[in-house]
């Protein structure tokens, strides 16, 4: 049984006319007729009754038609999958990640995605919030992983991934180690390491000002690794998203009164068509068991 023979039968069943079926299949009528007769011989029964130029489906043909259609549909689906796989290999995904997003959980997702989509290419760059927005708009990246905000959701298409709390991080010998959670007033007057790249920094500072909490910044940096290293060295505490704490030895406690959290999501440009590779990534991100 050949796929060409199945196509001939399906076209003939559609038109009930060998001439029209041959034209649809782009073959001569004798070639189509020969192919159908060969398939009937292999099946052991007639698919069509022939009445001069007029043809009708036999009872046997009518019962076989759904099975033949299923075979044709499966073959077409396999061709689409093969084509998409080739496209996945040819078109890398350009992924931009906000510099304050912790890499461990994102790396686990990307590792699982890579295992499920062999041959796919990823290009990852770390950017600030403003750079990510510009590069998305200009088409320089396909997807941005960043904190979702109201103004971002008004301009872009967003897909939430996970939530994470803000925590207070400090070295093991710090007095805060005795607490199970840290209320903001507990931190007034404490030495502080300021994370300049934090997209929620202004909000936290505003809350501190409103509640009369005074913080003394002894060190400031836009780099997450430097912030954590200076905290561990005993310079002061820092506010950090819980999944961004990566340096061994640091202690952390949830920030309460008030609690602060953020939502990390995948951001794309509305109306811009996804490549097969990007489409696969977005589906995988939606199905992944993210923390929290």
UniProtKB/TrEMBL annotation:
Q: Is Ribonucleoprotein tagged as a keyword?
A: no
- Where the record annotates domain HTH lysR-type, the positions are 1-58
RNA-binding recorded as keyword: no
A GO cellular component entry from the record: protein-DNA complex
Record CDD domains: PBP2_LTTR_substrate
- Give one GO molecular function term: DNA binding
Pfam families referenced in this protein's UniProt entry, alphabetically: HTH_1, LysR_substrate
Name the PROSITE patterns for this protein. Answer: HTH_LYSR
Q: Which domain of life is it from?
A: Bacteria
Which family, according to the similarity comment? Belongs to the LysR transcriptional regulatory family.
What is the protein's name according to its record? Transcriptional regulator, LysR family
The taxonomic lineage of its organism, from the top, reads: Bacteria, Pseudomonadati, Pseudomonadota, Alphaproteobacteria, Rhodobacterales
């Amino acid at each position: 049984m050949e796929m060409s023979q199945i196509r001939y039968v399906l076209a003939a069943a559609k038109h009930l006319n060998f001439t029209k079926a041959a034209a649809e299949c782009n073959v001569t009528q004798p070639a189509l007729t020969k192919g159908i007769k060969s398939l009937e011989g292999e099946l052991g029964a007639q698919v069509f009754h022939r009445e001069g130029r007029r043809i009708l489906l036999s009872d046997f043909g009518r019962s076989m038609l759904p099975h033949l259609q299923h075979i044709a549909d499966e073959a077409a689906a396999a061709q689409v999958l093969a084509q998409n796989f080739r496209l996945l290999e040819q078109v890398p995904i350009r992924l931009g990640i906000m510099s304050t997003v912790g890499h461990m959980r994102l790396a686990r997702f990307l590792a699982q995605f890579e295992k499920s989509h062999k041959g796919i290419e990823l290009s990852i760059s770390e950017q600030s919030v403003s750079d990510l927005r510009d590069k998305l708009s200009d088409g320089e990246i396909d997807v941005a992983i960043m904190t979702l905000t109201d103004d971002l959701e008004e301009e872009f298409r967003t897909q939430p991934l996970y939530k994470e709390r803000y925590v207070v991080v400090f070295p093991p010998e710090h007095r805060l180690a005795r607490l199970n959670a840290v209320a903001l007033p507990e931190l007034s007057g404490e030495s502080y390491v300021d994370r300049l790249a934090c997209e929620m920094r202004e909000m936290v500072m505003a809350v501190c000002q409103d509640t009369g909490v005074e913080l003394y910044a002894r060190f400031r940096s836009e780099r997450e690794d430097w912030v954590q290293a200076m905290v561990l060295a005993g310079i002061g505490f820092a506010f950090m998203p819980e999944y961004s704490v990566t340096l061994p030895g640091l202690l952390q406690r949830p920030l309460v009164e008030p609690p602060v959290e953020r939502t990390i999501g995948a951001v794309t440009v509305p109306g811009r068509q996804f490549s097969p590779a990007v489409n696969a990534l977005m589906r995988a991100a939606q199905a992944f068991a993210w923390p929290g």
